[in-house]
Protein: Threonylcarbamoyl-AMP synthase
Organism: Ferviditalea candida
Amino acid sequence: MTEQGMETMQTKYWKASPNAEAFDPAILEAAEYLRSGRLVAFPTETVYGLGANALSTEAVEKIFQAKGRPSDNPLIVHIADPGQLDDLVLEYDAPVKQLIEAFWPGPLTLVLPVRPGAVSPRVTAGLSTIAVRMPDHPLALHLIRAAGCPVAAPSANRSGKPSPTAAEHVRNDLDGRIDGILDGGHSGVGLESTVVEWADGKVWILRPGGITPEDIRRLGLAVELDASLQSTGGDSSDAASSFDGVKEAGGPTPRSPGMKYRHYAPKGMLSIVQGDNPQKVSAYIQERIDEAKAKGEKTGILAFEEHLPYYRADVVLSCGSQDDLSSAGKLLYDALREFDREGVSYILAEGFREDGLGLAVMNRLHKAAGGRLIHI
Ligand code: AMP
Ligand code: MG
């Protein structure tokens, strides 16, 4: 079915408290939807996911249609118990067990050799590996348990849009394109899971996320960033425009297929300004913004809470405190949506230091900016 040809359907809405009991009628009905091959969005501790029965090719196919997601970008399978992992993957080494014990349930996705035939081949995009995680959200766990099947679930947004952290964001993007939305209030940290693979005696980070390299090193394991992440600085010259699901030109072939796609792009032109001297960064940003405004642009600035008083623009938004990035992911996605709502056409963002959660947040910001980074 083509993008335009997608029929609209009635999207069912359920509301449930994040602390609802396992037998809450909303959860049971949503689970029945999933089991029978329909698409249901649900909250997790990272962002809202768009779930489908991972055993059914027909169901999984609908995810790609509803999101407009490139079909060679595999999906993460969500389970409700670590024991379910053995049905999905071949045997794995002791360090993988260590990661599971330390971080599940939680925002860590493991890429492991897939047990042949365990899920629809559309889930893995034909790879010999499968990505699996156990979310740390009571509604998600109840739902997956009640559905009785592994649940493939990417973020519940149209491809190329910011990840949703509230049911309302899902509704804006996917109303009429999916079967149901389980509204459990705001999702958690707002940053997607960290995707890792155990290979050559190391934990390879394929996508940075809520679990930081430092968190993993604390277990005594060696951690390495995938080649695709080592140059987030990148070259801004090839990034004049950013389209949904467009492949980035050049660069090393990533081990995580999704890393080659641009994501989370706001409609306005966003660039990141980074430098060691915060005063210089602020002065530069204000100067560029004033110039843009004089040319008739509607301007936006995304800055650390501490720096907000220094800025004047049509829309000035906070990405949180420099000293606590725990909500920076959610603030970033909310801000990108807000800039779009306000029709902002020219946006400058302060860059993050790439340690701790800053690595993941900067990675998302970098994608949102289509690689446009100004170093001063
Ligand atoms: P999303 O569901 O959009 O949050 O993205 C899922 C991420 O997991 C993408 O970056 C995928 O490329 C990655 N992923 C899923 N399955 C695999 C796999 N088998 N091997 C490597 N990366 C994977
Ligand atoms: Mg996504």
